[in-house]
Amino acid sequence: MAKYFIILSLLLAFCTATSHRLRRHAWHTLTPAQNSSYISAELCLMHTPSKLSLPGTTSRYEELQAVHQLEMMQWFGGDGRPQDGCITNGPFVNFTNHLGPAYAYTSHCVTRRFNETCSAQTAQVFVDECVAKGDWLGAWTCIEGKPHTGGHGGVGGLMLDAVVSPRDPLFYLHHTWLDKIWADWQVRDLPKRLSEMGGDNVQDEGNLPLPFPPRPDSIPKSTGADGDPGNVTTLEHVLNMYGNGPNRTIGEVMDIWDGVLRYEYVEPETGGY
Ligand SMILES: [Cu+2]
Question: What region holds the Tyrosinase copper-binding domain (predicted)?
Fold first, then answer.
């Protein structure tokens, strides 16, 4: 929550000239008059023309959004261009993919089609809802639902290709964030949640949030379900790395802190995800 108040204070500072030191207060402690004055400050920003010549901006309000967008673009590039979705800036602008779409093999750029409606599903409120679930099946389906699909749909383009979405470098940022949500759910009930597993190991292709085309005969069948006694995922389930590293069972990687992975998350100073 703290980060929102920093942004709120910045918004107010743009339209309120002050000579004394500003003090930051939580929204719910303000008077109705102060709440309305804050809203007026936002409207002021929205109605004040831009002056920084940042791409796409028409108001001071959008210039603040542009700071965030440009920070991301600096590292990963921005949205795709209208005609074909290819990104036009950032370090991956000249990167050519060779896998996909789906199970095909073609040469193509990194494509994106940002969608703020989808991105909204990654909001903190939905993450909190998932982390509060009392069992693995509840947490997994919750994370899969909004935070997971919200990230894929929010970026769009390659990220919406259910078979080869990792073609966009943003995929890895998104999925390591999902890993953290899982770990945050685990720490709420340790050590019990280091061994909680379940759910189908072969997804129902007719009931997926993203479309999976049928697997052609030329593609080897997945061996991901090795080790499971049936269509229920267990700790003995083998994660096939196809030579990228040693195959592991799910049981071996459940404990990120003391298992074979051995890592921990460092919380940002402002908290949150
Ligand atoms: Cu994903």
Answer: 168-179
